[in-house]
Amino acid sequence: MPLSIPAVQAALKEEGLDGWLLYDFHGSNPIARRLTGLDRDGKMTTRRWYYVIPASGEPKKLVHAIEPYNLDHLPGGKTIYSQRQTLATGLQQVLGGLKRVAMEYSPGNAIPYISRVDAGTVEAVQEAGASVVSSGDLVQRFEAVWSDEALQTHRAASERLYRIKDRAFDFIRESRTNGRALTEIDVQRKMVEWFGQEGLITDAPPVVGAQENAGNPHYMPTAEKCRAIGDGEIVLLDLWGKMPAPGAVFADITWVGFTAGPAPDRYVKAFNAARDGRDAAVALVKSAVAAGRVLRGYEVDRACRAVLEREGFGAQFIHRTGHSLGTEVHGNGVHMDDYETHDERRLIPGTGFTIEPGVYTKDFGVRTEINMFIGEREATVTGPLQTEFVPL
């Protein structure tokens, strides 16, 4: 979809900004490339370009003489530069006295997903007379908001992931019942097969981690490095995927099972802490959205993390509470984070994200991961919530 200039200008006025300055050099800013459509056009972009959308008036382009036509598909007047001196004067010209502009910049690199503009370019804009603020919430509006069709693709992917999860646990249970030896990679390979049957695509195979490997949040079994699934062990499944359709968005879930009778108390206590932290975060999001109250990503992380800290697992919860979901599994919307970063972006209608607290030790790990979607006055969890270990 082409970027809607009137919609951007309305958002700029609401945010109290004079303009949005989109900038890229050689693919350094994928957000700007997507928003301007350059990622679809296949044009050669080896020089710096700038596209200024003011809160009022006509947009302006600044492009190099070697590549003067790169932004011709967008509205607005054009200034062409070649020498470094004409770049500086051209930047002043297209900014046109704007005092406060948004760029893909994050103070202190607090949100790396947004921090796409280099420090030198920020300095050049400041020297041209404009102060630079983060475009984080603007990016959310125009990159992270799901259409109705995208929401349907998410729900379709979610249903398929839950079926694959159930089949994987059934496969483990059946293999154990029949006395067949089973490794993590055996389960992963079956899950990849079921992804194909369900028509899902993904950027990586699912995670299957047994016992101490479940204690590594980004463990991935391989044919060369995997272990057998034994008796009395936790098995963690983390799987994500989307439908093979333009604009489809990901679903991403994690569940845990136990290969014996009742799980030991220390495992149950850890899982219950993660579960209760998840539920506290969900309750906060639901209540804030229902009340029309502004809620920011860091607040959700705090609500979840407080539960795990109260239960004595704060030091073992070593990542943020959740991440944005989009056409990539880690999207460009707000993250539920006051741990790895301090994400002050707002939760806005039309966006989706994960809630996924975990407890990780050298001996075992647990995690529960669900997905949420923010509607106009209601927040929903888009799949079942795990309440206890799945018996295997």
Description:
- With 392 residues, this protein is of the alpha/beta class.
- The chain has 2 domains: 5-143, 3-Layer(aba) Sandwich (Creatine Amidinohydrolase, Chain A, domain 1); 145-391, Creatinase/methionine aminopeptidase superfamily (Creatine Amidinohydrolase, Alpha-Beta Complex), CATH 3.90.230.
- Helices cover 35% and strands 18% of the residues.
- The chain has 10 helices and 16 strands.
- It has helices at 5-15, 30-36, 38-41, 84-95, 119-127, 136-144, 148-177, 184-198, 265-291, 297-310, and strands at 19-24, 49-54, 60-64, 77-81, 100-103, 131-134, 207-210, 234-241, 251-258, 324-325, 352-355, 358-360, 365-367, 370-374, 379-381, 390-391.
- The strands form 4 sheets. Strands 4-3-2-1-5-6 form a 6-stranded mixed beta sheet, sandwiched between helices. A 4-stranded mixed beta sheet has the order 7-8-9-16, with helices on one face.
- Helix 7 (148-177) crosses helix 8 and helix 9 (265-291) packs antiparallel against helix 10 (297-310).
- The longest helix is centred in the middle third of the chain and has 30 residues, at 148-177.
- It is elongated, with a radius of gyration of 24 Å.
- The protein starts with a helix and ends with a strand.
- The model has no long low-confidence stretch (mean pLDDT 96).
Q: What is the name of the CATH class of the largest domain?
A: Alpha Beta
Helical residue percent band? 25-40%
- Domains, number: 2
Rg computed from alpha carbons, rounded to a whole number of angstroms: 24 Å
What's the overall geometry? elongated
SSE order, as H and E? Answer: HEHHEEEHEHEHHHEEEHHEEEEEEE
Looking at the overall shape, the CATH architecture of the largest domain is: Alpha-Beta Complex
**N- and C-termini, Cα separation:** 47 Å
Return residue spans where pLDDT drops below 50 for at least 5 consecutive residues.
none
CATH homologous group name of the largest domain:
Creatinase/methionine aminopeptidase superfamily
Structural class: alpha/beta
